[in-house]
Amino acid sequence: MHVVVCVKQIPDPAEPGKLEGDLTLDRSGKLILDESDSYGVEMALQLVDKAGGGEVTLVSMAPNNENSGLRTALAMGAAKAILISDPLLSGAGALDTAKVLAAAIKSAEPDLVLTATESSDGYTGTVPEQIAALLGLPSITFAKEVHIDGQSVNVRRQTEDGYDEVTCSLPAVVSVTAGVVEPRYPSFKGIMAAKSKPVEEQTVVGLGLDPARVGVAGAGQEIVAVEDAPVREAGEIIVDDGEAFTNIVSFLDGLKLI
Amino acid sequence: MHVEFTETQEALRHLVRDFAEGEIAPHAAAWDRDHHFPTEVVRAMGDLGLFGIPFPEQYGGGGGDLTTLCIAIEELARVDHSMAITLEAGVGLGANPIYRFGSEAQKQQWLPDLCAGATLGGFGLTEPEAGSDAGGTRTTAALDGERAEWVLNGEKAFITNSGTDLTAFVTVTARTGPGEISSIIVPSGTPGFEVQPAYRKMGWHASDTHGLSFVDARVPEGNLLGVRGRGFAQFLQILDEGRIAIAALAVGCIQACLDHCLQYAQDRHAFGQPIGANQGVAFPVADLAVMAETARLVTYQAAWLHDTGRPVKQAAAIAKLHTTESAVTATRIATQIFGGSGFIDETPVARFYRDAKILEIGEGTSEIQRLVISRELGLPVR
What we know:
The complex is a heterodimer. Chain A has helices at about 35-50, 70-75, 95-110, 125-135, 190-195, 215-220, 245-255, and strands at about 1-5, 10, 30-35, 55-60, 80-85, 110-115, 140-150, 150-160, 160-170, 170-175, 200. By secondary structure, chain A is of the alpha/beta class. Chain A has one domain (about 1-230): Rossmann fold (3-Layer(aba) Sandwich), CATH 3.40.50.620. In chain A, the strands form two sheets. Chain A has a nine-stranded mixed sheet, with helices on both faces. Chain A has a two-stranded antiparallel sheet with strand order 2-3. Chain A is globular and about 70 Å long. The radius of gyration of chain B is 21 Å and the shape is globular. In chain B, the strands form three sheets. Chain B has a four-stranded mixed sheet, covered by helices on one side. In chain B, strands 2-3-7-6 form a four-stranded antiparallel sheet, covered by helices on one side. Classes of the chains: A alpha/beta, B alpha+beta. The interface between A and B is medium-sized, with 15 and 20 residues.
């Protein structure tokens, strides 16, 4: 069983974030493993354990050959990593990222691809489905539980009012929600072992992609402005004088909710 | 000169900080209140590999060094002194004597479980009448040649990790002849070896500390650790490492005082402004930052000297003396900044205040450190 997990290395959320001149996030400092990806790593390790063999490969895209977040996931037990680091990718949007990750995943030939539902810095939440589309693989989102059954994967996926059970053939791309498993702490031995685990460094050209179609050059989007989120406005307080329900009904009606 | 930790050391710091904040911090106050030694959490620290950090992989260790161990101790101490000292004593007093002086068979027998944190060992040196004055040791071990056994009689005092569910043995210093002190491994459960009820301590409530008594306790002759008659000399050899590790614990304590006070000085308002706007609060917080920085520098300088095989006796004594006296001062400052809340046991600083004092006493008092330093300076002090 060979599982690829897409992991993102992000600026430490505990530190105040900064924007570059082009309004993208400043990623020049030390990056850490996005916590939301630690669930995918844990689930992959558990699936490989249950399968009785195989390995977990990480795929990540980051500037400056940054790999300290990858080392964390390698210390947890992943076997190896593919890191795509290329100045051409500065300013890459979600679709560019998906193209790059998809090319790297293809080269790894996995049985299953796990991702988080979204990253904790960009929050576009679109990359997993884009990867699946680019690779022509089935995609299951918001997985709470993942079971492998021979050549298919069975998933309980979170919905607003419960869960769906979905089965599809392998290979497939499955995005897992945070909190589905308890990510293990790495051990000191794991940290020491991670130092010598292979991290294959790749470039846009090395993956056979056209530099004109990824990164700023190929971006189909541009960040034109960044503003603070609006302060939440005070709600309307309805005092019940015996007829409050009519106010509530008309309020909900105004929102076209009823 | 440039002080920089390796990527591995930074990764370990990150790991231990996550673990301490996730698994220890939420419970530290309750363990303190209930004098509870959290066996499962100590086992989890073992699973992280913390007890094996400085030992070779062939014995189940992590192949790290003293600097790396100090980082783990510092990060635990930021949250809870009791778990930090449990690690420090487990490695420095439990496993290290076996590693440094044990026969190959003894290492194979004890180290893998010690490194895994599956078992703990204690070191019984101090007695009711003898601490730094080892010449006052009264515990005896007589060799019964016929049965090839040591027969131990006597008492030990203040022995860390000696009575936990994980404790596998205590290494005991005892008189084995006139003017002769030797170290002998006494397994837990040996008939005649009694662990006394836990002390009622001022601090370190979740750490396990007992008096021990030996009445005709018999162990195999092969349980002699190292060379007969070298028991105290062996102990002196591992003291420097222990002192640096205690300094790391003090660094964590000072850092915790700084972190808590910096937050509180901004959150707590009085007279219409954060109390940190007053120099009377801001300057002591600045002093805490100075203490944290200087304590960290002397500690990791000493650890580096040790790890690179350089003489470390004086640096270890200086680090231990400076950091532990700073830690006691830092907890006093922190308690004062917290005011009435600092006197309430539920705030961490009240616990740190009680916990810090022993740092100036254990593994050689401040006075002993000054004695070591003055002798290293060449003074003929007795």
